[in-house]
Amino acid sequence: MKKILATLLVSAALSPMASAIAADTAMTTQPVAATEITDSEIIEKLFKGSYKFWQQARNDNGSYEDKLYFEHGSNRGSIANSGMGLIALAIGHEMGWEPEAEELALVTLRMLAGKGPDISVPRNPSNTYIHFYNTQNGEQIGVDWSPIDSAIMLCGAMFIKRYFPGNKEIAALVDELYETTDLTQFIADINRGQIYLVQDNDGNNMPPKTKAFNEYMIVAALANQQAIDFKKGKQGRDARRFWNHWYETPKNLPVSYYNDIPVLSEGRTWFTSKFNFLFNHYLLNGFSASEEYQQASANAARADYSWFQSQGFEGMKEFEWGSGAGSCPDGYCVDRIVHEGIETKNPHMMISPTIIAGFIPHSERAKDDLIAMYRDDSQKAVYELPEGGTVLWRYSKTQPEWRSNAIEGVDFSTMLFGLASLPEYLGTEFFNAYNDYSNPEPANYTRPSKATLLAAE
């Protein structure tokens, strides 16, 4: 795995920002006392730490680990993390932290396209990517040939293509990935709003399906665009109809009410985990640039906060909310809020700071809640990364002694993205500019007037 400190020290000669982040990496493994630093310094520390996570999860061959373990290494890669990692490279480059981001992106894209010198990521006969694979030899792990993970990978690839518009090799590799990874084949039932969840080793769709609304909006969006770009016959026509019927406007989607707050969901009697809103927001221009979808995200954030605060849980603090996914005392949990009288879907009362951060563009309280969480005397959310860097991660209210042994990359991604969207850093327009994949014009992005490169701590 990449040795972050050494790399950053070498990069220091090229970039003052790299020097700043290297100095931060060399800090003690214990977080600075919360009373000794300002609010802005806390946010800077968390932003830097969130980027360091992606540096430490990356391997020299361009692959990204599924999880970053605190006590030992891993060789299980995630195809979705390749996409999130490519977006992280764009953020790191824009902040001045990753001067070699363009070449690093090429290493990852060559691997994904099967043109790298070390490993290739497995694809089945229908060109769908495997969810998990061995990062040392490229062998598949499990049989989850996944449309959503393939779609997240494609989003990251197209994001980095727009970010480095002058690189012809990046453009050619991304175009090849987009043209060969056919997502129109996963439209299952237009009338019911269903998309296939998985294929088998032979490229056949398996019975499990999911229903709008959730993160599979990403699959639907890319399938719709592929149908426009490549026609695709009946399969393409179905993809166009599916998008127009369900996702063209949130008015077409099911709504479940938490008290008087309308929340998009897969059904009218229950709620979906909030990462679904955030993945769609940061990866899809049709979501992030839509006033209707932005209002839907604001509603989701408000409902989520209200649910946590209304549970009557002893010791619940005002900054504690966020129903997301990731490590939990049972291993891995996907948490959801529920209607009163319904069995809980968050039995460990997990708090997800990555969800709070992801909702920064939609919630006025999100930034302050992250600061309060860092300052809290319990320090339950504060983790130190193996090679340096401070982050906030999930913790349990019912089992306060529990500590996670790893951080899942795809679930952690919205921490980096949310902090990057702050106006003092890159702003929401950074994502709107570079997730507009079908726009033939170059991205027109200008840093917010308040933005400043982070100085050394």
Q: Keywords, please?
A:
457 residues; alpha+beta; Glycosyltransferase; three-stranded antiparallel sheet; 16 helices; 16 strands; globular; disordered N terminus; Glycoamylase-like domain-containing protein; signal
Task: Describe the protein in words.
This is Glycoamylase-like domain-containing protein. Keywords: Signal. The protein is of the alpha+beta class. The protein has a domain of 251 residues: Glycosyltransferase, CATH 1.50.10.140. Helices cover 42% and strands 12% of the residues. The protein contains 16 helices and 16 strands. The strands form 7 sheets. The protein has a 3-stranded antiparallel sheet. The two termini are 26 Å apart. The N terminus is likely disordered.
- Number of DSSP strand runs: 16
Global outline = globular
Low-pLDDT sequence parts: 2-30
Strand proportion: 5-15%
Proportion of residues in helical segments: 40-55%
- From the 3D structure, determine the CATH topology of one domain: Glycosyltransferase
Straight-line distance between termini: 26 Å
Rg, Cα atoms, Å: 21 Å
Count of separate DSSP helical elements: 16
Classify the secondary structure makeup into a structural class.
Answer: alpha+beta
Instruction: Please summarize the sheet with the most strands.
Output: 3 strands, antiparallel
CATH architecture of one domain: Alpha/alpha barrel
The average pLDDT is 92
CATH class term of one domain: Mainly Alpha
Query: Can you list the strand order of the major beta sheet?
Result: 2-3-4
Q: What would you give as the CATH superfamily of one domain?
A: Glycoside hydrolase 144 (GH144)
